[in-house]
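User: Structure please.
Assistant: Input sequence and predicted structure:
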Amino acid sequence: MATKRTFEENLALAKARGSTAKKEAVPVKQLSLPMWPEVTRGVPNAFLRNALFGTSSNRKTHKRRTIITTVEQYEVRFKGETFNQTDLDVWETLLQLARLQPLGAKVEFTAHALLKELGRGTGGKDHEQLKEELARLGSGWTEITDKKAKKTFAGNFISSYVRDDATERYVVSFTPEMAQLYEAGYTLIDLVQRRALGRNNLAKWLHGHYASHAKPFPYKVETLRELTASGTAELRKFRQLLKKAHDALIDVGAIKSWTIDPKTDLVEVVTVPSQTQLKHLTKAKKVKK
């Protein structure tokens, strides 16, 4: 007949087992973001090559997981209120803070300081806009599938946050799995150039997209309208906006030139590649030879 243990004996046994488990436990690797320079913003390529962060100020609400227009190896589905470039501005800035510590750690800031960093005003409307953007980033459900790697990231851009209404101090949490999106490839966005584009959301989208390629592919005007989630119904009008956006990119030094072929309607640009992209292009030429 088995002898019953006393409460004290069971407690001592539980402590002993816990101590053994701690000794045998394998340390969990801390996921962290790459350390990019202050004058840049690191953005996963999976966000720069599709309509996830679009250009229209007229937002749609997808009640079901909806396929977002994309190119290359990604497949993107989204549920919620759609994002645009202002949401990307906020998220890039939050990630600038998050990269200084392991993912999963909380990021603290005041709304005033964040708005100033974004180059915005600090009035009541600006604070309300920030609240709406944080709510969108926290509620929009995104699924990004890398078809080459056969992996899918699914989740929200912000896990949660706490706000002190007296001080307007936020404490924001991110999902640790976000690091996987950076492991699949990311681009350093020139912050000075992006800010110089002001409120030209189309130019901002093109700026990020072109920066994510060593040599951008030529796309038809109609394809770019879909990729940017422009919402401009008339192709003729969108073509005009596209021309102005490309001129703005030349003005800030992001590209050297652009053309739209009158026969094929293909948009081609000559960019200013980074040192890393130059190495990639040189290597590609050697392989072709």
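Residues 40-272 form one domain.
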